[in-house]
Write a structure and sequence with these properties.
By secondary structure, this protein is of the alpha+beta class. Helices cover 50% and strands 10% of the residues. It has two domains: 2-82 and 191-197, 3-Layer(aba) Sandwich (Glutaredoxin); 91-187, Glutathione S-transferase Yfyf (Class Pi), Chain A, domain 2, CATH 1.20.1050. The chain is globular, with a radius of gyration of 17 Å. The protein binds glutathione. Glutathione binds next to loops.
């Protein structure tokens, strides 16, 4: 059976969420962060040389990296409906948002925290630009790839939700994003993920 190693308040939420969307049988192993460093504990780091969450184990395959895992699970375990293909009108948008989540948006949010910490505020602002672009996109379509939910929403979900526990942001200026987050929170798979992965926390949806 597929094993999903989830580190609290981390990008492995995506994988639990995906398994719930696909109704995949899986075993969830929850790990707490090291209380002193807030990093993954050593038993988590030992799972894969990447040393980061998420990690899944599927038979003899041990896989890390959110995007790779989402792609792998969709292709391997019946999630094609979450991956718009070349013939789909949302194909290019799907690819963009699927990769933008970790390729640009997560780094922008993290780097803004760093620049502000070092008072280099002139270098900050990339996260503002990312949220503005998200707001624009969600004023045009219901989901990131178009009018159907896709794996791009699972990838984008983390920077838009739980990441705000680390980098707080007032969502008042983003009405379309707020409506989108309400749609996410209405998905039974999202609620199931939250109940299993982060049972002590309130989801970061507003
Ligand atoms: N791009 C990687 C990022 C992985 C990553 O940095 N995960 C964080 C949690 S959100 C982590 O494991 N932090 C704890 C640590 O590095 O010890 C992915 O999406 O899998």
């Amino acid at each position: 059976m597929l094993t999903v190693h989830h580190l609290e308040k981390s990008q492995s939420e995506r994988i639990v969420w995906l398994c719930e969307e696909l109704a995949l049988p899986y075993m969830l192993v929850r790990h707490e962060r090291d209380p002193a460093t807030r990093a993954a504990p050593s038993d988590y780091k030992a799972l894969h040389p990447a040393g980061t969450a998420p990690v899944v184990i599927d038979g003899d395959i041990v896989l890390a990296e959110s995007g790779a895992i989402v792609d792998y699970l969709c292709r391997r375990h019946g999630g094609d409906w979450l991956l718009p293909g070349p013939g789909d009108p949302g194909f290019a948008a799907f690819l963009f948002w699927y990769h933008y989540a970790n390729g640009s948006m997560m780094p922008a949010i993290v780097m803004d925290l760093v620049w502000k910490r070092f008072n280099a505020t002139g270098l900050a602002g990339k996260a503002d630009a990312a949220f503005a672009m998200v707001e624009q996109r969600l004023s045009e379509t219901e989901w990131f790839a178009g009018n159907v939910f896709s794996a791009a929403d699972i990838m984008m979900g983390f920077p838009l939700t739980t990441m705000r526990m680390f980098a707080p942001r007032d969502l008042a200026p983003y009405p379309h994003l707020r409506a989108y987050l309400a749609r996410l929170g209405a998905r039974s798979a999202y609620r199931a993920m939250w109940a299993k992965a982060e049972p002590e926390l309130t989801p970061c949806l507003d």
